[in-house]
Design a protein that fits this description.
Helices cover 34% and strands 13% of the residues. By secondary structure, the protein is of the alpha/beta class. The protein has a 5-stranded parallel β-sheet with strand order 3-2-1-4-5, sandwiched between helices. Helix 2 links the parallel strand 2 and strand 3. Helix 1 crosses helix 6 and helix 6 packs across helix 7.
C-alpha cells in the first residue's frame, strides 16, 4: 500500500529545519548546524518584505552550502502592514531610534516558527534553528530568549510529535554572541559572506544602503572581527 506523500516521517536527531533570510546571521547558523552533523533543511518566507533580494540570497546560500532542501513559503504580512519592512508608505529609519523600531514586523517570528514547526513534524526533524540574537540586535521582542523558551513549550504541547514523546527543540546558537564573534565563527567554518544580504532596503541586485540599522550592525561586525567587509554597497 502506497503511503501518503505528506505522512510524518520517523523522527531523527540529525535533521534540522533552519530559518534563513539570506543574511549574515542565518547563514552562520546553517554552517554551525552542518558542522554539528545536522542534515539541514532551509526555510525562507516571501512575506511581502520590501527587501526581496534577500530571498535570492537565501536560495544562493542554501545551494552553495549544499543543504538537503530549500523551501520558500508565501505569506502576505504586507496585508496587515505595521512595519517599515512591509509597508512602502513607512520609511526605513536611517538613524538609531529609541525603543522597538518601526522595522519590527508584528508577530513575524511567531508565524515563521509555527510554519517551521509544521515542516519539522513532516520531516521528522527534532530541532528548529533560528539566528535570533539578544546582544547585537535591533530590540525586537521576538528575538529574546524568553520568547524562544515560551515557543518551545508551545511547540511540545501543540504537536503530535511532542505529545508522543518526541520533543522538539528550538536552537538559538547566536543568542549570546556579538556580530564580530558571529563573523569570526562563520569565517572559521568557511562561510562566504559575499553571498549574503542583510540590508532592510537592499536593491533588487542586492546592493546595501549602508545606513539602515541592519547595515550599521553588519558593518560594525566586520570591523570588530578584523575582517574585510565583502558587502556590496550602493555607494560603491
Amino acid at each position: 500500500m502506497v503511503r501518503r506523500a505528506r505522512a510524518l516521517m520517523v523522527a531523527t536527531e540529525n535533521k534540522a529545519v533552519i530559518l534563513v533570510s539570506g543574511g549574515l546571521d542565518s547563514t552562520t547558523v546553517v554552517a554551525m548546524a552542518q558542522a554539528a552533523g545536522y542534515d539541514c533543511y532551509t526555510l525562507s518566507f516571501d512575506y511581502g518584505q520590501r527587501h526581496r533580494s534577500e530571498l535570492v540570497a537565501a536560495e544562493h546560500v542554501s545551494r552553495a552550502m549544499g543543504v538537503r532542501e530549500h523551501k520558500v513559503v508565501h505569506l502576505n504580512l504586507d496585508s496587515i502592514g505595521g512595519s517599515a519592512l512591509t509597508d512602502e508608505a513607512i520609511a526605513v529609519p536611517e538613524q538609531a531610534t529609541e525603543g522597538i523600531p518601526i522595522t519590527y514586523v508584528p508577530a513575524r517570528n511567531t508565524v515563521f516558527l509555527s510554519i517551521a514547526l509544521g515542516w519539522a513534524e513532516v520531516l521528522g526533524a527534532q530541532s528548529i534553528h533560528i539566528g535570533v540574537n539578544a546582544v547585537d540586535y535591533s530590540g525586537y521582542p521576538d528575538c529574546r530568549p524568553e520568547f524562544i523558551s515560551a515557543f518551545e513549550t508551545l511547540a511540545n504541547l501543540a504537536t503530535k510529535a511532542g505529545v508522543e514523546g518526541q520533543p522538539l527543540r528550538v536552537e538559538t546558537p547566536l543568542m549570546r554572541m556579538g556580530k564580530g564573534e558571529i563573523i569570526e565563527v562563520g569565517i572559521g567554518l568557511g562561510v562566504d559572506y559575499s553571498l549574503t544580504v542583510s540590508c532592510y532596503q537592499a536593491t533588487s541586485e542586492g546592493l546595501a544602503c549602508g545606513v539602515c540599522d541592519s547595515c550599521r550592525l553588519r558593518r560594525q561586525g566586520f570591523i570588530d572581527a578584523g575582517v574585510a567587509d565583502p558587502t556590496r554597497y550602493i555607494a560603491n
